[in-house]
């Protein structure tokens, strides 16, 4: 079964609401394509203005984070209902920056993934190793553990619709893209892991992105790999370069 590519921008903590509108308007004509789902994951305060600006285009607005509780005394957090009420369809879960700076654990990631599915929001579930882990040769063991915990109690039907972003931490924001072989090898390993947890049909349906300094030069080869179904793009998603990545062919 052919999987449609999904290319998502992660704006991180960039863009005020007015800057967000200007950026969506600038990128709108550059990201038109039938070949991929195009998602802009933006700061919570930018979601509504970005969505307004994106109307009539192929851009889908997503969120960068979400809490796993429904509502209440969790100052500063964003509830799933807040996202769905705004029309959000995708949310990044467990980005390495959330894990590192905000101490999100694999168990938190799992709770958020379950909550996202409960609210019909597609999670973009991030995983990936540190440079030290890669050098120690434990990349696949580590990533498999992240995946197994993230998918606990997730049904096969839900898993089929999920997106996984394999993002080696050493490649994020560093300008060091993993080699095509490294990226394909781990994405294939993740697909095999999903096959072990569920079945082959689920493994073949799930979309797996590569993320880590993707740019217009590296995207074509990365996206041509059999197990890489698109990219999660940080820095380059804030520039016209994103249009070139989205139109990689
Ligand atoms: C990211 O933020 O998920 C990311 C991959 O960033 P960059 O493309 O800047 O490395």
TrEMBL record:
<dbReference type="InterPro" id="IPR022896">
    <property type="entry name" value="TrioseP_Isoase_bac/euk"/>
</dbReference>
<feature type="binding site">
    <location>
        <begin position="10"/>
        <end position="12"/>
    </location>
    <ligand>
        <name>substrate</name>
    </ligand>
</feature>
<comment type="similarity">
    <text>Belongs to the triosephosphate isomerase family.</text>
</comment>
<dbReference type="InterPro" id="IPR000652">
    <property type="entry name" value="Triosephosphate_isomerase"/>
</dbReference>
<feature type="active site" description="Proton acceptor">
    <location>
        <position position="167"/>
    </location>
</feature>
<dbReference type="GO" id="GO:0019563">
    <property type="term" value="P:glycerol catabolic process"/>
</dbReference>
<dbReference type="InterPro" id="IPR035990">
    <property type="entry name" value="TIM_sf"/>
</dbReference>
<dbReference type="GO" id="GO:0006096">
    <property type="term" value="P:glycolytic process"/>
</dbReference>
<feature type="binding site">
    <location>
        <position position="213"/>
    </location>
    <ligand>
        <name>substrate</name>
    </ligand>
</feature>
<dbReference type="GO" id="GO:0005829">
    <property type="term" value="C:cytosol"/>
</dbReference>
<dbReference type="InterPro" id="IPR013785">
    <property type="entry name" value="Aldolase_TIM"/>
</dbReference>
<feature type="active site" description="Electrophile">
    <location>
        <position position="95"/>
    </location>
</feature>
<dbReference type="GO" id="GO:0046166">
    <property type="term" value="P:glyceraldehyde-3-phosphate biosynthetic process"/>
</dbReference>
<comment type="function">
    <text>Involved in the gluconeogenesis. Catalyzes stereospecifically the conversion of dihydroxyacetone phosphate (DHAP) to D-glyceraldehyde-3-phosphate (G3P).</text>
</comment>
<dbReference type="GO" id="GO:0004807">
    <property type="term" value="F:triose-phosphate isomerase activity"/>
</dbReference>
<keyword id="KW-0413">Isomerase</keyword>
<protein>
    <recommendedName>
        <fullName>Triosephosphate isomerase</fullName>
        <ecNumber>5.3.1.1</ecNumber>
    </recommendedName>
</protein>
<comment type="subunit">
    <text>Homodimer.</text>
</comment>
<dbReference type="InterPro" id="IPR020861">
    <property type="entry name" value="Triosephosphate_isomerase_AS"/>
</dbReference>
<keyword id="KW-0312">Gluconeogenesis</keyword>
<comment type="pathway">
    <text>Carbohydrate biosynthesis; gluconeogenesis.</text>
</comment>
<feature type="binding site">
    <location>
        <begin position="234"/>
        <end position="235"/>
    </location>
    <ligand>
        <name>substrate</name>
    </ligand>
</feature>
<feature type="binding site">
    <location>
        <position position="173"/>
    </location>
    <ligand>
        <name>substrate</name>
    </ligand>
</feature>
<dbReference type="Pfam" id="PF00121">
    <property type="entry name" value="TIM"/>
</dbReference>
<keyword id="KW-0963">Cytoplasm</keyword>
<comment type="pathway">
    <text>Carbohydrate degradation; glycolysis; D-glyceraldehyde 3-phosphate from glycerone phosphate: step 1/1.</text>
</comment>
<dbReference type="GO" id="GO:0006094">
    <property type="term" value="P:gluconeogenesis"/>
</dbReference>
<keyword id="KW-0324">Glycolysis</keyword>
